[in-house]
Recover the amino acids of this structure.
C-alpha cells in the first residue's frame, strides 16, 4: 500500500519505527565538506525527518553503515583476543538510493561469498539491514546508473518521495504496514531515473592477451600527471571494499590494545608493498589502471554477474584533480578497440 | 557465526637460528596443513603476516621467518614458551594429485626453500612417492644458507645441487639457479615430471623462462606466489591480481595461468 504523511506525521512515524529499528540515513553536516564553505552528507543514525537529506546525493555511500571506515575487530589483553560486539540487536532501516542498494550486492560478493568465506563483522550488520528506497528527484550530474543497470530496483521494504510538506510512502514489507494504520492512502509508486547525462560504453575485453596489452597501453599515462594517489575515489566508492588491518596499543598501557580494520585503497602507494619493500605498481598510472580494470573487467571475470560499479559518480565528485570516471571508461574502451583492431585478436 | 579472522594461541616450542636474519619457529599445534600452504601469524598490537609452513608433524608446525618487516621483526624475538597466535592453514598448496608418481623437480631460491621443505622431507622419507627428486637450491651467499644440515642429508636421496649467487664453497657452486638448470636430467625424465619453482619474483620469472627454453611445457611448471596480504581470506583485496586472489586461489599457480597474471 501507499500512503501520504505530512511532516509532523512522518516524524511521529519515525519515532514509532525507532522503537523497533535503528534508522540510518544521509545527513547533512554543514561546513564539514572537503573544501571551504561546503557541507558533507554522510550516513549516520537519525531520528527525525529534518535530519534526513532527501534531495541531494550523499557525499559518501551507505556502505559505511555496514563497513565503517575504521572498525575495531579485537581488543587485546596480554593473553586474549576479545572480539568486539555490535551495539544493538535491533534491525536497521537504511534510507538509500537504487544505486546504493545495488552496491550492497557487490559488497556482499566480497564479504560474504568470495572464497566461500563469510566475514562475521560484515555479516552481523548486513543481516540486520532493511532497505528504504529514497526516490531520486533527478539524475545527478555525475551519475551514470542507467549505463550500469543500477537505476532501478525492487529490493526494498519501503520507498519514499519527498513532497512539499510531507512524504509519500510505498510499503512493501507487511511488517511495516501496522505503522501506517489510519494513514491517508495515496497513489504512489517510486519513479526511477531512466536516462543520465552521462552514458558509458564498457570495454569488451575478449581475452587475457588483450587485457595484458591494455595494461601497458599509453592510455594510462595521463594519470601519472593527474592522479595524486589520494585514494579519495575509493573511500567514496559505493562498491570498493579493500581494507588493511592495523594494530595499536594504548599509550597509557602498552599491554593492551586493539586490532582495527581501516579502509585501504589500491590508489595509495604501498597498497601492494610487501615486507622487504617489493612493489608491483609503483606509479599512479599503474594503480589507476589496476582500479579501473577491477571495476570494469576483473570483478565480472571472477563473479560472472555484474561489474564492480553502480555508476553513482562519487569517484568523479571526489577527485581533487577532476578525473572523470566516465571519460576514463571511454578512453579505456577506445584503447581496447584499438588493440583488437591492430592485433587482429 | 564463526569469526574467520580470529587467531588462536599456540606455544612456541623451539626457536632455531638458521642464519643471522632467519629463524625457524616450532609451535605446538594440531593444525595439519598441506604442503605449500601458509598461515597468518599474528602478533597482538603489531599485526599479522602470511608465512609458509616450512615443516609440520604430529602436534607441531614450523615457520621459517626472515626479519624483514614490522611483524617479522617481532616474530624474530620469540623465545620457547612464548605465545604465538595463528590462523589458517590457507591456500591451495602444491598440487599433490599431479605430483605423486611423477619425477619431481624443485627449484628454490633463498627463503623459497621453506615452502617446499615439508614436501622434500616427505619425499626423502617415503622414496616410493616419486621415482626421482631433483632439487636445485640457490642462496645469496654462504651466510644465507637455510637448513644447512638438512640440505646435506638430501644429497643422498635426491639429485641435489646447491649454488650461491656470488661465491663458491664446498658443496655449493657459483651462480644463480638459472645458470644451473642443465643439472636437471630432463631426457631421463621422459614426460613424467613436474617442476616446482619458488623464490623471489625475479628468480621465479627468469627460472620459468629458462625452463621454457629447455622445452619444459608450461603446464608442468608450478610457481608459488608471494603477495602482500592483510586478511588471507579474500576480503582485504591486497593480494588480488586480475580476477585471482592469491590467498584463495593460490599461492601455487600453474605457469600456464601465472604467465598471464600481471599485477
Amino acid at each position: 500500500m501507499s500512503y501520504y504523511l505530512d511532516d509532523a506525521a512522518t516524524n511521529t512515524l519515525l519515532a514509532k519505527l525507532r522503537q523497533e529499528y535503528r534508522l540510518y540515513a544521509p545527513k547533512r553536516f554543514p561546513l564539514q565538506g572537503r573544501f571551504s564553505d561546503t557541507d558533507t552528507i554522510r550516513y549516520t543514525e537519525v531520528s527525525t525527518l529534518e535530519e534526513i537529506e532527501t534531495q541531494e546525493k550523499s557525499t559518501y555511500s551507505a556502505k559505511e553503515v555496514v563497513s565503517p571506515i575504521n572498525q575495531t575487530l579485537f581488543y587485546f589483553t596480554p593473553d586474549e583476543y576479545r572480539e568486539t560486539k555490535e551495539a544493538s540487536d535491533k534491525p536497521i532501516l537504511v534510507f538509500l538510493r537504487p544505486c546504493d542498494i545495488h552496491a550492497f550486492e557487490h559488497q556482499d560478493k566480497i564479504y560474504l561469498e568470495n572464497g566461500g568465506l563469510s566475514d562475521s563483522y560484515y555479516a552481523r550488520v548486513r543481516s540486520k539491514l532493511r532497505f528504504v528506497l529514497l526516490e531520486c528527484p533527478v539524475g545527478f550530474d555525475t551519475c551514470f546508473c542507467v549505463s550500469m543497470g543500477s537505476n532501478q530496483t525492487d529490493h526494498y521494504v519501503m520507498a519514499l518521495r519527498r513532497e512539499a510538506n510531507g512524504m509519500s510512502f510505498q510499503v512493501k514489507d507487511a511488517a511495516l504496514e501496522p505503522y501506517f494504520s489510519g494513514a491517508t492512502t495515496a497513489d504512489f509508486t517510486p519513479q526511477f531515473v531512466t536516462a543520465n547525462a552521462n552514458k558509458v560504453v564498457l570495454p569488451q575485453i575478449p581475452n587475457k592477451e588483450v587485457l595484458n596489452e591494455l595494461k601497458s597501453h599509453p592510455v594510462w599515462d595521463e594519470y601519472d600527471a593527474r592522479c595524486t594517489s589520494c585514494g579519495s575515489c575509493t573511500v567514496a566508492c559505493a562498491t570498493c571494499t579493500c581494507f588493511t588491518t592495523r594494530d595499536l596499543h594504548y599509550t597509557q598501557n602498552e599491554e593492551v590494545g586493539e586490532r582495527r580494520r581501516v579502509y585501504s585503497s589500491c590508489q595509495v602507494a604501498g597498497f601492494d608493498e610487501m615486507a622487504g619493500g617489493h612493489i608491483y605498481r609503483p606509479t599512479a598510472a599503474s594503480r589507476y589502471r589496476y582500479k579501473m580494470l577491477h571495476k570494469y573487467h576483473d570483478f565480472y571475470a571472477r563473479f560472472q554477474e555484474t561489474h564492480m560499479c553502480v555508476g553513482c559518480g562519487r569517484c568523479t565528485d571526489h577527485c581533487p584533480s577532476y578525473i572523470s570516471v566516465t571519460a576514463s571508461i571511454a578512453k579505456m574502451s577506445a584503447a581496447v578497440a584499438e588493440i583488437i583492431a591492430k592485433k587482429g585478436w | 557465526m564463526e569469526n574467520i579472522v580470529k587467531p588462536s594461541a599456540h606455544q612456541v616450542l623451539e626457536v632455531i637460528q638458521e642464519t643471522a636474519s632467519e629463524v625457524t619457529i616450532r609451535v605446538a599445534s594440531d593444525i595439519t596443513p598441506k604442503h605449500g600452504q601458509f598461515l597468518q601469524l599474528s602478533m597482538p598490537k603489531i599485526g599479522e603476516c602470511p608465512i609458509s609452513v616450512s615443516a609440520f608433524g604430529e602436534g607441531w608446525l614450523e615457520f621459517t621467518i626472515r626479519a624483514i618487516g614490522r611483524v617479522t621483526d617481532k616474530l624474530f624475538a620469540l623465545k620457547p614458551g612464548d605465545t604465538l597466535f595463528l590462523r589458517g592453514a590457507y591456500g591451495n598448496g602444491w598440487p599433490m594429485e599431479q605430483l605423486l608418481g611423477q619425477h619431481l623437480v624443485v627449484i628454490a631460491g633463498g627463503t623459497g626453500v621453506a615452502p617446499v621443505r615439508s614436501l622434500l622431507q616427505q619425499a626423502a622419507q617415503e622414496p616410493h612417492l616419486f621415482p626421482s627428486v631433483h632439487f636445485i637450491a640457490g642462496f645469496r651467499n654462504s651466510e644465507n644458507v637455510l637448513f644447512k644440515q638438512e640440505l646435506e642429508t638430501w644429497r643422498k636421496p635426491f639429485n641435489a645441487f646447491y649454488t650461491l649467487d656470488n661465491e663458491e664453497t664446498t658443496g655449493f657452486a657459483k651462480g644463480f639457479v638459472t645458470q644451473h638448470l642443465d643439472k636437471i636430467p630432463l631426457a631421463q625424465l621422459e614426460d613424467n615430471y613436474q617442476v616446482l619453482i619458488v623464490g623471489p619474483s625475479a628468480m621465479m620469472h627468469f627460472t620459468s623462462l629458462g625452463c621454457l627454453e629447455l622445452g619444459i611445457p608450461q603446464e608442468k611448471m608450478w610457481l608459488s606466489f608471494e603477495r602482500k596480504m592483510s586478511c588471507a581470506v579474500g576480503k582485504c583485496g591486497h593480494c588480488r591480481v586480475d580476477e585471482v586472489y592469491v590467498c584463495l586461489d593460490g599461492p601455487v599457480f600453474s605457469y600456464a595461468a601465472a604467465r598471464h597474471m600481471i599485477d
